[in-house]
């Protein structure tokens, strides 16, 4: 086992652990703590990207998610009434329902992973951290999905503008 | 992993961190001295260890310059009582200063502060996505301030933290878009390659002046310096996010602010002012001898220090913006300007090719 393998296990374990602590932290029911663990989970995922030599993705992951999205989460959490959220008990129905759906998704994805032999027969990834290579792919092979995703963002933006307008004429 | 790489990296990290810490201490002194001169005062001119006075001629001059003031400041921060107010959220109260300092130190890792000394590249990590790394780390810096505001559990720091998070996110967008023309022109994200390009073609400041302007203003906002220091505006928020902090924890926020300043000065030098290059005396290509290497480090430091002086000068010359003016400038002036800048640069490059 060389250094990369050890680092992979460290980052993978950190991602899973922090991800679990986001939703089920036994020590604190403070939403800010959850948000901070989400940041840690995202940073360890960026670490996994680095191990795959996808430096661009790692950087974008941190800039977009850790740097902007979670800061907005914190912003919203801090402006809401935190006390009420902390006092709320976990309902049995919610707990059981969540457990069942997570197990179902896990079983399905494990089954399909087993059936699909991930990575077999594929050429090794050629995105050696290359921003240029990634950009070329986005503008040639994946141009349609890329544009569709941007239309999705546009729809969200239009929705926000519509909602924030006080009176519609 | 070869040992050579590890040893040289550790040495480089130790030296760079040491130099940055020292520069922070003396940047505070420079801030106090320059502010004193601007306001027609004298500034710190007393503190000195007892034996210095006895050095003939030189000693009193050094004391008048206040060269020993940073030592006194540091000692004071270390020895003062570390007071934790009742009612703060303990874990975050301890975490916030650390979260403020760590990103400000990490940013410096990708900045090439010289070409070569012997066979060693004078940069800690020569990343291919250098600039994106910088933006990623800078964007993490906001957590220190937001959590400080949240941890203090009182109104003024909270308002400071909220203001800061909104301000930093807004200006990050303008800042990120302002540098895109630089990469379009230079054709690389690697900071060493960008400096190499500038050595061959001239400084990027001449090719992308609008980018430089936006980057300069945005870096004032990102480092929470006047005229954009609303997170700590003392006339309205007492002290902003660090109101409840004292002693070493307060010093860490100070350290973070000044090392952010150093980092953004270094980024501006690297991106727009040719890094360690000078267009004459053969300093525009990587050094071949040890003396040249040292000279290029010196060139970089001098350029960086002049930007630090600019930061300090601006702080004492301009009044603070109002919060709505700040947001207006960020979103309605700089973001469209940066977009047009990208478009124009791309079209010009396309016509040329």
3D architecture notes:
The complex is a heterodimer of chains A (169) and B (353). Chain A is built from 7 helices and no strands. By secondary structure, chain A is mainly alpha-helical. Chain A folds into 2 domains: 127 residues, Four Helix Bundle (Hemerythrin (Met), subunit A) (Up-down Bundle), CATH 1.20.120.1200; 36 residues. The radius of gyration of chain A is 20 Å and the shape is globular. The termini of chain A are far apart. The mean pLDDT of chain A is 82. Chain B is 68% helix and 1% strand. In chain B, helix 1 runs parallel beside helix 14 and helix 13 packs across helix 14. Chain B has 353 residues and is mainly α. Chain B is built from 15 helices and 2 strands. The mean pLDDT of chain B is 84. Chain B has one domain. In chain B, a hairpin with a 2-residue loop joins strand 1 and strand 2. Chains A and B meet through helix 2 and helix 3 of A and helix 5, helix 6 and helix 7 of B.
């Amino acid at each position: 086992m060389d250094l990369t393998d050890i680092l992979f296990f460290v980052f993978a374990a950190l991602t899973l652990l922090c991800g679990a602590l986001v939703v089920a932290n036994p020590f604190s029911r403070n939403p800010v703590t959850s948000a901070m663990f989400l940041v840690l989970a995202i940073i360890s995922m960026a670490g996994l990207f680095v191990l795959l030599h996808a430096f661009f993705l790692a950087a974008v992951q941190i800039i977009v998610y850790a740097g902007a999205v979670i800061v907005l989460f914190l912003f919203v959490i801090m402006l809401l009434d935190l006390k009420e959220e902390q006092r709320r008990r976990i309902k049995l129905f919610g707990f059981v329902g969540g457990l069942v759906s997570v197990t179902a998704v896990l079983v399905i994805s494990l089954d399909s992973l087993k059936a699909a032999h991930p990575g077999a027969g594929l050429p090794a990834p050629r995105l050696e951290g290359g921003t240029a290579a990634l950009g070329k792919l986005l503008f040639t092979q994946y141009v349609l999905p890329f544009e569709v995703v941007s239309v999705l963002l546009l729809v969200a933006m239009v929705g926000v503008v519509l909602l924030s307008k006080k009176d519609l004429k | 992993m070869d040992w050579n790489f590890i040893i040289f990296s550790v040495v480089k990290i130790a030296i760079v961190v040491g130099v940055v810490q020292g520069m922070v201490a003396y940047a505070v002194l420079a801030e106090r001295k320059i502010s004193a001169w601007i306001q027609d005062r004298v500034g710190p001119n007393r503190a000195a260890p007892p034996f210095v006075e006895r050095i003939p001629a030189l000693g009193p001059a050094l004391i008048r310059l206040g060269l020993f003031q940073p030592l006194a400041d540091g000692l004071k921060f270390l020895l003062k009582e570390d007071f934790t107010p009742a009612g703060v959220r303990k874990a975050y109260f301890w975490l916030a200063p650390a979260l403020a300092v760590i990103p400000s130190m990490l940013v410096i890792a990708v900045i090439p502060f010289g070409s070569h000394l012997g066979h060693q590249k004078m940069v800690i990590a020569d990343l291919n996505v250098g600039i994106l790394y910088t933006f990623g780390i800078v964007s993490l810096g906001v957590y220190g301030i937001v959590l400080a505001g949240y941890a203090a559990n009182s109104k003024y720091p909270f308002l400071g933290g909220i203001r800061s998070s909104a301000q930093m996110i807004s200006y990050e967008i303008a800042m990120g878009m302002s540098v895109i023309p630089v990469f379009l022109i230079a054709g690389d994200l690697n900071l060493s390659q960008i400096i190499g390009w500038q050595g061959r073609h001239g400084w990027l400041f001449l090719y992308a002046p609008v980018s430089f302007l936006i980057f300069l203003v945005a870096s004032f906002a990102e480092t929470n310096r006047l005229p954009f220091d609303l997170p700590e505006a003392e006339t309205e928020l007492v002290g902003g996010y660090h109101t409840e902090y004292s002693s070493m924890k307060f010093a860490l926020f100070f350290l973070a602010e000044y090392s952010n300043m150093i980092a953004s000065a270094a980024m501006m030098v690297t991106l727009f002012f040719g890094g360690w290059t000078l267009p004459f005396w053969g300093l525009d290509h990587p050094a071949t001898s040890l003396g040249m290497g040292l000279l290029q480090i010196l060139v970089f430091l001098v350029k960086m220090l002049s930007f630090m002086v600019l930061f300090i000068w601006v702080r004492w010359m301009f009044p603070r913006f109002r919060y709505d003016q700040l947001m207006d400038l960020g979103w309605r002036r700089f973001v469209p300007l940066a977009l047009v800048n990208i478009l124009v640069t791309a079209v010009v490059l396309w016509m040329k090719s």
